[in-house]
Amino acid sequence: MSNTFLRPSSTTTRKRQVSSHEFNTKSLRKFVETVVDDEVSQRLIPILSTAAANNTVLDLQDILQRFAFDNICKIAFGHDPAYLLPDLPETEFAKNFDDAAKISSGRFATLLPFLWKIKRFLNIGSEKRLKEACSYLREFARNIIKEKKQELSNKPSLETVDLLTRFLSSGHSDEDFVTDIVISFILAGRDTTSAALTWYFWLLSQNPEIEKEILREIKDKSESPVYEEVKDMVYTHASLCESMRLYPPVPIDGKVALRDDVLPDGTVIKKGMRVLYHPYAMGRLEMLWGPDWEEFKPDRWLQRAGDGVSNDGKWSFVGRDQ
Predict the structure, then answer these.
(1) Is residue 273 in a domain?
(2) Closest to 256 measured CA to CA, from 241, 271, 277, 234
(3) Which is more confidently placed, 1 or 275?
(4) H/E stretch holding 277
(5) CA trace torsion 134, 139, 140, 143 (10° rounding)
(6) What pLDDT score was predicted for residue 159?
(7) What range defines the domain where residue 45 resides?
(8) How many CB atoms lie under 10 A from the CB of residue 54?
(9) Is 308 exposed, middle or buried (0-12, 13-18, 19+ CB in 10 A)?
(10) Domain-embedded: residue 261
(11) Is the dihedral of CA 213, 216, 218, 221 positive or negative?
(12) Mean pLDDT of 124-147
């Protein structure tokens, strides 16, 4: 298969390269740790503890989506939408983001694609709402960018600053480009994080022995620095991978061919064709995962010493291809 098949656009590739570079810095990693720790200790745990004490039923996916949204907004551009508060408020930014995401994704599900194009042309219905939501989000982002540029001249250090400030201080002055990066970052991380965590906690509730093993590992590693603590939690890592094998946060994904090509099995792909792949189905194939594919087994992702992976008798994480 040629290297050009289904390649992301140059703009998308550039965004990913910029984001990857920024996330490799130790100071940003520390900043992320601080943001997430504060959100967990100051907001998530108090809400869950109160609900448990009062025997209150919560919509866990909604709570985790709020949790992810707050975290990503703080990390991406230093803005706290305060979406995960005890009264579970509706915020203008979150509402517009939700509307834009739902309407955009709805375009792909419609049986009559020309309808949304007509509505867009006439600026009516859902397309009018999409235009309003996108305008609000971009204006909101531009105002934050202006504020960040102003702040940069007074910042002596970048030890605990958000991703947007890092982009701007690195010379990325194109406001549209930076705005696209920030919005794409939020879009990619918010729903996927909450969906993955919701299924994960549901699976743990159905598998108490696995839950006990995870709790044991957390207690054993709790004295380590945060990054080292998480890095060494191989069983917890394996259980997350196993959860996402069964319930991937993006169950179907697709790409568009940049030019004509041929798949390894001989399938001819023409320029502009959309090609979909199905992680949900791939994670449930018996030929890949064995006859026990439907079982939640973190051990699939682990090996002990003597298996050619480590020499200390401990579990080691081993990645698996689908």
Answers:
(1) no
(2) 271
(3) 275
(4) strand 274-277
(5) 160
(6) 55
(7) 1-189
(8) 7
(9) exposed
(10) no
(11) negative
(12) 91
| Residue 293 in domain | no
Report the distance separating Cα 313 and Cα 298, nearest Å.
18
Count of domains observed in the chain: 1
Q: Rg of the Cα trace of the chain?
A: 22
Handedness of CA 37, 43, 48, 50 (dihedral sign): positive
Tell me, what DSSP letter sits at residue 84?
S
> Domain of 125: which CATH number?
1.10.630.10
Residue 228 CA neighbour count, 13 Å, CB half: 6
Question: What phi and psi values does residue 30 have, to the nearest 5 degrees?
Answer: -65, -40
Mean pLDDT of 281-289: 94
CA distance 197 to 205: 12
Asked whether residue 238 is domain-assigned, the answer is: no
**Cβ 260 vs Cβ 270: under 8 Å:** yes
The answer to whether the beta carbons of residues 178 and 48 sit under 8 Å apart is no
Q: Is the per-residue pLDDT at 306 higher than 70?
A: no
What is the share, in percent, of the chain residues with pLDDT greater than 70? Answer: 85
- For the cut 90, the answer to whether the pLDDT of residue 271 exceeds it is yes
Exposure string of 93-121, with b = 16+ CB inside 10 Å and e = fewer, is: bbebbbbbbebeeeeeeeeeeeebeebbe
For range 252-279, the mean pLDDT: 91
162, 164, 169, 170 alpha-carbon torsion, rounded to 10° = 110
Closest CA to 321 of 290, 282, 295: 282
